[in-house]
Write a structure and sequence with these properties.
heterodimer; A: about 270 residues; alpha/beta; Rossmann fold; 6-stranded mixed beta sheet; 4-stranded antiparallel beta sheet; 10 strands; globular; B: about 300 residues; mainly alpha; MetI-like fold; two-stranded antiparallel sheet; 14 helices; 2 strands
Amino acid sequence: MVSTAEDMASVASTHDSAVKLAVRDVAIRYGSTTAISGITLEVKENEIFGIIGPANAGKTSFLKALNRMNDFNSEMSVDGEILFEGTNIRDVRNVYALRNRIGVVFPLPVGLPLTVYENVAFVPRLRGITDKAELDVIVERCLTRAALWDEVKDRLDSLGSLLSGGQQQRLTIARALSQEPELLMLDEFSIAVDPVTTMRIEDVLKELKPEMSIILVTNLVQQARRLADRTAFFLDGECVEIGATEDLFNGQVKDSRTTDYIEGRFG
Amino acid sequence: MASTGIVENQFIETELNVSAKRTENLFRILFMLMAGLLILPVLIILTTLIVKGSSMISFEFLFSNPTNGMTAGGIFPALLGTVWLVGVALIISVPVGVAAAVYLSEYAPDNWFTRAINLAIINLAGVPSIVHALFGVGAFVIFFGFGTSILAASMTLAVMTLPVVIVATRESLQAVPHAFREACWNMGATRWQTIRRVVLPNSVSGILTGVILEVSRTTGETAPIMFTGAAFFIPVLPESVFDQTMALSLHLFVVATQVPNVPDALPYGVALVLISMVLLMNSASIALRMHLRGKKKW
């Protein structure tokens, strides 16, 4: 965890290969309104990094900045440095390739109005894969890993956007996996999903951890406790605290507001 | 008993209630009458045309040339000419209109340039058709040197109907939820990849509806074509877009007002054919919309 100026300087000079994503002093503004400021954190390889915090803490804005979705919103400006594998994403010319390496799962599931098959084959097709057999393999693998294959294998030709909410959310994850992402960002994925599906997706995430970094934004503190290796607590656009999840939940905190939030005294 | 009395008292009509009810009924009937009036002109026009014109309709009438100074014979050159004019106008206006709408809906940032384009579209839609006609003469007939021809007339029609295509297309593009676009962008798709694979396939029904409505409007237009490419009387069929042609709408105007000794039923027959074409196209548009709307996608 980066906490002092010296630490930050050392990170800047030598890129630690175990660090997937380094964020330094990032501030996001919409026009004259500041959404978040002074965010400094690192996400390591093969870890699940939890972000908890009440509504309006700036969690979603933060995720948007990480894959430069702010390019689509002229109101939204991002200051500070975001290093993806040591490269400042602002300097990335091929922003499509950057987004391609980062999978995103939204709060509300978005099954594209294509067939289940084409939802998952979307990104492989963009990459120029046209061979049906090759696509078949990718689609089956991604759907299996997202714990959805058994439910949809007989209706791959039905519309993905008409699946149930829980199925659509797993479809979204399968689609993200088809990107073979190095970083997977989930924004309150369980908000529109039943508890059983939520647990299945949580199991999926644990299985994915050895292969990628995962940022898990959640409004369920217990979900962060179950999954995250380290957790950051966002409040009113600031990062109050970052620590090993176990420590935070055991009361080893630097700021008492963290414990207050975890124990449900506000938010 | 006493309590029932109180309850009943609460619901006794006061004078205010009575007058409110009376006004309510008055306005309901007034509004209904106004709405009902809409059916009247349609009914009158259709019945008149069918009663007075249907005797004219025959295979002969539709597929032969006018004879005896347009007082007898058929309307084939005019019918075919209308198909030519509308077809060429479509070939020009649909690609331009759809492309412009895609830009405005999917690419355009909110700046003065975009606002200027939107303003231009609104103004273009409000230009009277006779002004379009004179613009067509100046621009296409004279400046571009197309002469009075199908091409010049169709381009005039295309310019005039462009706003319809643009607005219909833009609305059907906007009807595709924004979340789909965001999902595609997040996966690293470019705007065009998103448009081609997700947005356009899901807005094609609305675009087609707009196009058909444009066709039905174009079919009936007279002013924009009468100076630019439609002729009073040509006994030969057009062979290329640089020829002049007859057109149904102008032909109706001619036989109804410009030619002496026309049998009474003839203009009605022409009008009936013209309105049937338009109604047919409108019904096709409605049928298509209902068919495609039936397939729920999200």
